[in-house]
């Protein structure tokens, strides 16, 4: 009986009995200006328009006594004098197992017409990143089901990677492959600023009913307000944080970070922030690392994150790409040339890197990866000469091997969208192509768990070097001493017959 009335009791407890109100004084583009109410940055307010409809808005700034708000919906129907009511709360996101298989909007409301969410648990949309000292070490491999990533760019549980590409190169398709095939416990997917057509395409065609069973999808399409698109990124992250706090391994996928930045640029411009790089206000560069740092590990579970970055003009050094690449633990670059050659997924291995791959792969696997990488680099370096027929077979052994294995390497790095690649299958193909036998012991989740740290290796090397040096010094002590004295004498002569110490 207590559970039956619990949600009603919680509603009564959270209801504000004293309302702070104001009234609309102006609407300037995206911005609603009002005289009052007493409120704080990030607080949710309700604007009653001329049709007596409630429009949710958020406080984004102040100008003297003027409160500046951004509406989550259309500003249609708002006129001067409309009442503005403060809620006293910031955005809270519903969380819990009831969200699995559901599609919600930026404020956590159902988007899929499947009824209300049966949960009484809420997480704040805005939250700090985990304390660095509470983050668990990343030493377990997560399987993405994408052979090129699992072999050449192995990813650890709790690692954060960016997928960088121009438009139409395959970012969303790659995300859907990961969502279907990963061995993570839960997928949390944020579709930020996507075309309306692509939402159902992604859910029904790419993700499918099986993928949706252990997924939560947050949607803010490109036609929605900028505050919706920005807050959807925070809502996605908050839901992932809840499942991480339950001790689960979460796969967080966000498409795309660039549109999150575009949304904040629109808000910043509307509030009067001066533009900096490429028209982005300074607030973008402050908010971006705060969002990205919230993923990763904590003392309970992990959030492995893949963030797509829409590269303007295929320029990987444009401001958003440069900032994201410097913040994350690796980057996967999709090549337009490879996509045009129908090489899917169009991952440019030489331009991509996983900074933690050596922590989640075995030594023999690393040797195989290094060999394949070397052959790819040799082929690309001599690509024009090979294609034009200017290279003569037998001139260089390494180039000959790169040419011989080129098709096999392409087969390793490509797969059909519907292919399901297990880690065992991927490593077996890597072993065949590289001609290096990878033992089954390296197929496990933590093949490098016993690997020594850099400090341990350096300490052991120092001890070995000291022992070896002592043995050598017994035999060559006289010669070394004479040689050292001669070098010192020569240095004194060059400095004008004065000892360097005398001038100190």
In short:
This protein is of the alpha/beta class. Helices cover 40% and strands 20% of the residues.
Secondary structure elements and their pairing?
Elements (H helix, E strand, L loop, with lengths): L1 H13 L6 E8 L2 E5 L7 E6 L5 E10 L2 E6 L11 E8 L1 E4 L7 E2 L16 E4 L16 E2 L4 H6 L2 E2 L3 E6 L5 H11 L4 E9 L1 H18 L1 E7 L4 H20 L3 E7 L1 H14 L11 H11 L3 E2 L4 E9 L8 H9 L2 E4 L2 H5 L12 E2 L8 H19 L1 H5 L9 H8 L1 H8 L9 H12 L19 H41 L10
Parallel strand pairs: 8-14, 12-17, 12-18, 13-14, 13-15, 15-17
Antiparallel strand pairs: 1-2, 1-6, 2-5, 3-4, 3-6, 4-5, 7-9, 10-11, 16-17, 18-19
Helix pairs in contact: 3-4, 5-6, 10-12, 10-14
Mean pLDDT: 87
- Global shape: elongated
Termini distance? 87 Å
Largest sheet: 9 strands, mixed
Number of helix segments? Answer: 15
Strand content: 15-25%
- Uncertain runs are 499-504
**What radius of gyration results from the CA coordinates?**
29 Å
Output the structural class.
Answer: alpha/beta
* Percent range of helical residues: 25-40%
Report the oligomer: single chain
How many beta-strand segments? 19
Walk me through the structure:
The chain has helices at residues 2-14, 147-152, 171-181, 196-213, 226-245, 257-270, 282-292, 319-327, 336-340, 363-381, 383-387, 397-404, 406-413, 423-434, 454-494; strands spanning 21-28, 31-35, 43-48, 54-63, 66-71, 83-90, 92-95, 103-104, 121-124, 141-142, 155-156, 160-165, 186-194, 215-221, 249-255, 296-297, 302-310, 330-333, 353-354. By secondary structure, the chain is an alpha/beta fold. The longest helix is centred in the C-terminal third of the chain and has 41 residues, at 454-494. The N and C termini lie far apart (87 Å). The protein is elongated, with a radius of gyration of 29 Å. It is built from 15 helices and 19 strands.
